[in-house]
Amino acid sequence: MHYDIAKILEEQRRDYKSYDYGEGYFYQSCKPLHITGFRSTEIRIKDMGLRNLLKGKSVLDIGINAGFIPLEIADICQSIDAFDINPFLIKIAQTCAKFLHLDNIRFWSGTFEEYNGAKTYDVVLSFANHSTYDRNTKQSIDDYFQKCHRYVSNGCMLLFESHLPSYETPEQLNKILEVLCRYFNVEKSYKLNRGTSGDRGRLFAVCIRRG
Ligand SMILES: C[S@@+](CC[C@H](N)C(=O)[O-])C[C@H]1O[C@@H](n2cnc3c(N)ncnc32)[C@H](O)[C@@H]1O
Question: pLDDT tens-digit profile of 96-121?
Answer without folding.
Answer: 999 999 999 999 999 999 999 999 99
